[in-house]
User: What shape does this take?
Amino acid sequence: MATLLYQCPAGISGDMNLAALVALGVDPSELESELRKLPYSGWSLEFKQDNRHGIHGLNCTVIVDEESSHTHESSESDHHKHRTYREIREAIEQSEIAKAAKSDAIACFKALAEAEAAVHGVEPDKVHFHEVGAIDSIIDIVGSAIGWHLLGVERVVCSSLEVGGGTVRCAHGVMPVPAPATSRLLNAVPFSSGATDKETTTPTGAALLIGKGCEFGQSISGIQIRAAIAIGQREDPNIANALYVSLIDEGSKSNFDVDQVWEVVTNIDDMTAESLSFTCEQLFHSGALDVWQTPATFKKGRLGCSLHALATDTNLSNVENCLLKYSRTLGLRKQKWSRTKLPRELSNVATPWGDVRVKTATLPDSSTRYKFDFDDCATIANSENQTLAWVEEKVQELYLKQTTK
Assistant: This one.
């Protein structure tokens, strides 16, 4: 799996991302050729080596006609044509760029349109982009989508994101950093601020990460194929204005199912075993994927446990409410995890005593592993006055006969 790891101690902007993708191996000529399929003219790309605070890397400048330009490093300037999200989306849809690149570009603009719509109280299709409606920002976003496609990027992870500080002047006046649209885009995203008194993460940069489905704060493992450093336009006395991006080969993940789950945890030292058991049952009823307890010793030498529950995005609120309602805790903590699962298949084994459910998992080497449902086997053991081991042995014999026919 081709994964991009973004490290943004000086934030991210559209032109910095373009520079990083070219430094990772995207052919500038091929990139520009694909971008020429858009119905926009009067622009060109310039890539050059530069450095900030002794950090050497690639700089990208989108050169456009004066009336279409704006400063990438901030949301400043309103001296250019305003385009709506609908206009930009239709231009991308009607172009002949690759389907995957179209999809990513539209997703990035959609994320930004929804953020702007929330800020201004209008429908996304009616949002008039100011800074991001300029030709150079369109080139930044669509060019990034093309670059991701050319590199075969399947996953994007960000380990650090700095948004800056101070204020920024945009088409709507002077705004605090992060700008309102950027703040909306980064809702529920971990970031840092205050490294400098300038805007470091622009709306375009934030939209690129969010639109591409970037995972923030997630672990990553694999082999680094290439590493790139992109240099921003502005000289900043406080920080090296550089973006660090690595192309990681995480290996083939075709044999795995990957998703994300929330782990909700609280510490308990004042509940009986019966009450804890009841709370666990209620957590399962609320939609928790799994519930477990970890023995622990708390303050004053009190024995207790940490009570854990796994939840999806859709049932997280139900699980939290259930835990707060049925336990004696006054609070909880939560963390999002990336989960890797073996593909599995549910089926039945026909036996003289009724069907027994079986779960079959496919291992990375394509071999399989199976497990019979405990409750079904226990029911047969009780009804036949046999041991559980006897039932499992008989069911296994029948299973192997039925699956090797």
